[in-house]
Structures are given as C-alpha cells and as structure tokens.
Amino acid sequence: MSDTRPRLSALIDLVLVLGTAVIVKELMMSVAWKYAGPVSLLCATLLATWLLRRRGKRWADYGLRLRRGWKSGLLLLPQTVLMLTVMVGVSLAYQTWLAPFLPVAPGAEDRFADIANSPAFLMLWIGIAIIHGGFFEEMIYRGFTILKLTEWLGGRDGWRMPLAIVLQAAIFGARHMYYQGLGGALATGIMGAGFGLMFWMFRRNLWPLIIAHASTGTLSMTMRYLDSIDVIEPG
Predict the structure, then answer these.
(1) Can you tell me whether residue 233 is helix, strand or coil?
(2) Which of 75, 122, 177, 235 is the most buried (most CB within 10 A)?
(3) Looking at the 3D structure of the chain, how many domains does it have?
(4) What is the separation of C-alpha 95 from the centre of its chain, rounded to a whole number of angstroms?
C-alpha cells in the first residue's frame, strides 16, 4: 500500500495537469485560437505548482534549479549549445526527409501573421516565446511530465526513464497538431524526444533547455518580423 499510493498520486497529478491543458485549450479555440496554447499551459502550470506544494515538493525538485559550483556554471554554456544543435538538427532532418510528405499545416504561419510589420505584436510573441515556450513547456513536459511518469512507473532505472521520454514526446507533439498539422506534430514530437533525452543527460536540469528553447523562439519571431518589412530599393 505504501508503494502504491505515491504512484497513484503521481498519475492523478499528471492527468489533472495535462487534462487542464487540453480542456482550457479546447475552450480557448473558439475565443482566441492563436493564444489557446499559452493560456492553457499557464493554467496547467499554476495547477502543477499548487499540486507540487500540496505534495511537499518544489519546482526545484523537477528540474528548475541552478546547481551550485563553478563546474555547473561552466557546463551551462556547452549544454545550451548542445540543445541548440539538437533543435537545428531535428529541424533540418524534418525539412529534408519528412516535409515533402508531411508538410507543416498553413495554420502555423497564420498563427503568427499579426507579427508582420508590427513591433508591438513582435514584442508580445517574443514574450510568449520566452515565458510559454521557454519556461512553461519545458517545466510541464520535460520536468513535470517526465518525472511524474517515472514516479508512476515506479522509478527512473532501466526502461522507465526512456519510456517516460517517449510518452512525453508523443504528448508534446500531439499538443501542437491543432495548428501545425500532422507533419508539424511529428516534427515537434521528435524535438520533444531530443529535449527529453537532453533533460536526462543533464541530470534533470531544465535550465539549458529553457535557455535554448526561449532563444530559438525569440529568433524565430524576430525573423518573421524582419521578413515582413518592406525593403526600400535605393533610388
């Protein structure tokens, strides 16, 4: 009984948090679909924070902690660079081998159309990229989901951690299908698997993932804005 109760609690927490993300997103789709993802994950993160405190835990126990010591500080840069390399590698692989057969849905560009020629919307989406993409997605999917899955499965040894990484990647990819389509969801799922693997390799440290994710999101939004600016040819 003492072993079953924590595992059941972990499963309940996971279902509540992921279920909240799904329900709020569906409710938001008919109101403001472009912001359905950020709003739903904000609600999920608030609920996860409350559940962790109720269990006597903190986000530091789920990867959101800065390790002490100069060695950890020195490792942060190469870890972040490795994360960026994984992201670029997966993106290039998708564009080369999968995009011709499973292209990203047009909704992916429609979602960010407001950025065109609008510095205000650029700042808004950069903020969303940092807070939602960088922090909330990594906290919920890599930190909360992976570690709650291992708690439910009974530990992190053997096959349990790899299975948890694959499951969260599938969930992460499916979450993006509503505006990216099947092709985008598959690419995002593969990215999620790479992020999960890095989370494991970095000894459950979310910071390299957060920095890399926020940085690429910021760059992506900025490039969309710059591409939309009319270039005046010299007379």
Answers:
(1) coil
(2) 122
(3) 1
(4) 20
